[in-house]
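Working notes for the structural subgroup meeting. M.R. asked for a predicted model of this chain before we commit to crystallization trials. I am recording the input and output together here so anyone reviewing the notebook later can reproduce the run.

Input as submitted:
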Amino acid sequence: MNKELRELLDKINAKKAEVKNLVSENKIDEAKAAKEELINLQAKFDVLYDLEEEKEEEMKNKIENGEGKEISDKVNDPIKEFANAARQGFKIQNTMSTGVDADGGYVVPQDIQTKINEYKEAKKSLKDLVDVEKVTTNKGQRTFKKRAQQTGFTKVGEGGKIGAKATPQFERLSFEIEKYAGYFPVTNELLKDSDQSIVNTLVEWIGDESRVTANKLILAEINAGFEAVALNGLDDIKKALNVTLGQAFKPTSKIVTNDDGLQYLDTLKDEKGNYLLQPSPQDPMQLRLCAGATTIPVEVFPNTDMPTVDNKIPFIIGDFKEAIKFFDRELTTIKQSDVAVIGDLNAFEEDLTLFRAIEREDVVVKDNMALVNGYIATEETP
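Returned structure, recorded in token form:
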């Protein structure tokens, strides 16, 4: 390679280094200008190299090769590789790119949002369906008149003795408040440096924890207080309403099930092929099961809140306000502290803020005649 080509190659390498340095210093306009100069230098090199190659070819034709003598152009391989790369658009290994931070990736803006987005979820509370009473003591009782089969008056003749009749009997429903709580540590750096309301996000999270707690307590009380009953299809559902619950509770009853139960109900048809699950004319968002003389509202909870366990789809039927009573002693209260100590966690020493949430409540069966704790067995795993 002649002196002019070598000097030009040195300039090209120097210009490449200059472009990289300008990019790392975030001098983008100067880097673009330097890159144009680099392209011009590479183009000039390509032209001169082609001329040099033609000259060398002419010299080779004049040389007589002796025995065992070979004229190899391996010494020119680096130059040829560079020239070939130049002909292909100068796409060499050390070019600027967004894939490598130092080669230009740092200057390409990224679409990063600090706004806290939420995935869509279905959130429902069984507490909305049951009888909730606010109380001011940690324990207590409520008095109810017992059910009894009354027989009516007895016929009495003139001058005859009037017989004694049974008087009302009473019973007590007891409750005892329990405490449910949790704490949530947050670094003070996060609270101070985030441009989002971390406190509001945490309060919403705690509110959802309260909803999940209520759902678990209510379902646990239903499963403990009502025997699980297998429902083998639509006829069993109608019998539960017409006979087991009867006229005392059927008019105010509803079916509470999960996503799997909705799928089951949504496939039921009558003899004419009409689907039995229909929206209410007054409220299209409210589903109703319409089967002959039976029309009953349907409430659907997500499987995450009311799971199908052991291939048994929950089908709880009845008047929830009469069946379950929720005694609320203290709504969820939240306190925060940057000096509190909980176990090995020292908020002051570790520069944290501790959020503590407490609620106090009790859930009891109010009327064991008002609910059918049913399920529909399925062979398929939902």
